[in-house]
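the two lines:
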Amino acid sequence: MHSDRIKEKTINNRKMKNDIILSGVGGQGILSIAAVIGLAAVENNLFLKQSEVHGMSQRGGDVQSHLRLSGKPIASDLIPSGKADLIISMEPMESLRYLPWLSKTGWLVTSSNPFINIPDYPPLEAVLNEIKKIRNHLILDADAMAKEAGSLKAGNMVILGAASRFIDLPFLSIENGVRKLFIRKGDDIAEINIRALRAGRRIN
Amino acid sequence: MQKLLLLGDEAIALAAVDAGLSGMYAYPGTPSTEIMEFIQASPEAAERGIHREWSSNEKTALEAALGMSYTGKRAMAAMKHVGLNVAADTFINSAITGVNGGLVVVAADDPSMHSSQNEQDSRFYGKFAFVPVFEPSDQQQAYDMVFDAFELSEKCKLPVLFRITTRLAHSRSPISRKAAQPEKKMKMPDEPRQFVLLPAIARKRYRILLSAYESLKYDNRISKYNTFRDGSNRKLGIITCGIAYNYLMENFPDGGPDLPVLRITAYPFPADIIRDITGRCEEILILEEGYPLVEEALRGLLDNNLKILGRLDGTVPRDGELNPSIVARALGLLLAPQLAVPEIVKARPPSFCKGCGHSDTFNAIIEALRSFGMEGVFSDIGCYTLAALPPYSFINSCVDMGASVTMAVGAADAGLFPSVAVIGDSTFTHSGMTGLLDAVVKNSPVTIIISDNSTTGMTGGQKSQATGRLEMICAGIGVGPEHIRVIVPLRKNHDDNVRVMKEEFSYRGVSVIISSRECIQTASRRKRSTTEK
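prediction for all of em together
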C-alpha cells in the first residue's frame, strides 16, 4: 500500500465484455457492489444485464448476482457456466460455490473473513487452501481494511476496489458510482466508502 | 434521453405509469413485489395521484382493478404466479364480463421455485380464461409491450395477462422510455349489463368471448410479437417462447444460428406461423420457460410424424428454469470446461435474522407444545416457515396462504388435540380470517398463533393490513375476548409466554394468541431513515 497512483485503463467499448459473478451471504452488500458497477457501466455507455436474488434467500442464505457488461447487446441475463471472467465474493466459502461459472483464465477476488451462521462451516484453512488452488486468485482481509477506512460496513467497497483492476472500466467511473450510490446517506458515508474502495484497489 | 437501469418488474411499472395508468393493485409476492414498490416510490405517480396501496390479497387486488377498469380508466394488478390462483375466480370471470378501461394482469412465475411452493406456468391461465397473453423476453420489450397490452385490452375489451418469470423480473437492464400518455377520462361501460353475469347474460358473453379469442390470433398487436427468421440449415427449426430466446442467442454471439427460428412472445397465435417453420424443417426444438405448453400443442395427443424435441422427450429437462448451458446441451454444442464445487462447501439455507421475534415465538411454542407430547404445528407462508429447518424443525405444514388455520380446524375435527396453527399477521389478513370464522362457528378446539411482526417480512417489509387491527379483527370474527391473548416474544418473557400458550392449548374451544413484536429489519430501516434525514 504505497502508491495512490492508479493506472487508468483505456477501454475499447466495441470489444469490451466482462462477465462477473458476485457472491456472499444475504445482507453483506453484494447488491451495492452491483449497483456501483452498474452506474459506472451506464456512464460509459455500455450494455448491461444484472440478475439479482430477492426473496427468501436474502435471510442469511447464500446469495449471488450475475453481472454482465459489454460493448454489444447482451442476450442472456445469466452467465453460461465456465464463462465468467471474475468472481467477486464477500465470503470465502461462498466464492467457491460458483466455481462452475469461472472460466479457466478468470479471476477470483474474495474477502478472507468467514461468515459463520451454519453449524457445519468447514475449517477456514481448508477453505482458503481450496481458493489458493485457483490459478488467479486474490484474498484480502476486507474487514480490517474497511475498519481502517472508517466503517466495517464498507467491506464490500474494499472488495470492489480490489476487483476493479480486472474490470474494464475506468477507476474514476467506479469512484463516481460509489459517490452517486452513497451520497444520499451523507457526505461522510460516501467518503468512507471511497476510502475503502481506494484501499482495496491498492492491494497487491 | 439517458437510459434508466431497471429491473424487469420496474420496467413494467414505469411503462404502466407512462401508459396513463390510474390504479395499481397488488399483494407482495416474490418475484412480483417490485412492480408496486416502484410505483409507490414514483414521483410521477404521486403527482398524478395514481392509486398505489397494497391490497389484502390478490383477489381483492384484481377485483379493485376490475372496478377501476369499469369506470374506463387503466388499471394493473400484479401478483406472483400462485397469487393468480387466489385471484382465479375474478380472473376467469373478468374475461367473460370483459373490461372497459385497459386491464393488465401481471403474473410473475418462479420456475425452479427460488422462493415459491410450485412452478406453475401462468400461460395456461391465459388459455383457460381465453385472454391474450404477453410473454416478453427482455426488459425493454417488457416496457414496450405494456403499452400494446393496454391498447389491446381496450380494443378487444378483455383483460390481458402479462407473464414474466423470475429471471426477467429480477434482472436489470437499461431502458429507454417512450412519451408519456395522459390518463383516461372516466367513462362508464357502453353496455350496462356487461358486468352482470346472470346465467342468461353470461352465456351470451361467453359466446362473445369465444369469437373474440379466435380473432385475437390475427390482431396486429399479437402478431407483431411473433417473428420468424429463416436460416439456410433446414435440418432443425427452433421455436422459442419468451426469455428462452435470449438463452438461444447467447450461444450464437455473432447474430444468431443459421437455422429457422420462430420467436413467440404473444398468445394466441394462428397455426400458420407454426406451419411456416414445421413445413421447412425435419426436426423442431422447442425452448420454453415453464411447462411444455407450445410443445404439447404441437405434439397433439397422437404425436404426429413431426420429430419434436423439448421438455417432453428429455432434450430439455422436464422441470426447472432454463439457462444458456441447458440450451447449448439441447443443441449438442460444446460447453466451456467447468470447475467443480469443492466438497467442503456446505449448504447455507436462509435462517431467522439475529433477534427475530419469530424465533422467540417458536422457542415458546416448542416448549409449551412438547409438554402435551406434540412435535410440530400447522404453519403457513412467510419468514416463520424457516422454523421448518434446524434447530427448530417444528413445522408440519406449509401449503398455501391461510392453510395453517383451516388445516388445524380439519385436524381438530378428526380429534387431534391440541391442534395449533402458526400464521403471520399479513398472511392472516390475506387468507386466514375466513378460516378463523369457520373455527368460531363450530367452536373448534384450535389455537391460532398469529406471529405478528407488523409487516410483510419475507418479501422485504411491505405494509401489513393487519397492523394495529388484529385484536379487533379476532374479536369481530367472534373469538371470546378472554381467549384473545397478546404476548411479546422476547427472551425475558419466555416463561410467561410458555404459560399463556399452555393455558390456551388446554382450552377446548377457539383461542388466538397474538405474539407481537416488530420485524427487526423494518424496525432498523425505520430508525435509519429517520436518522438520515
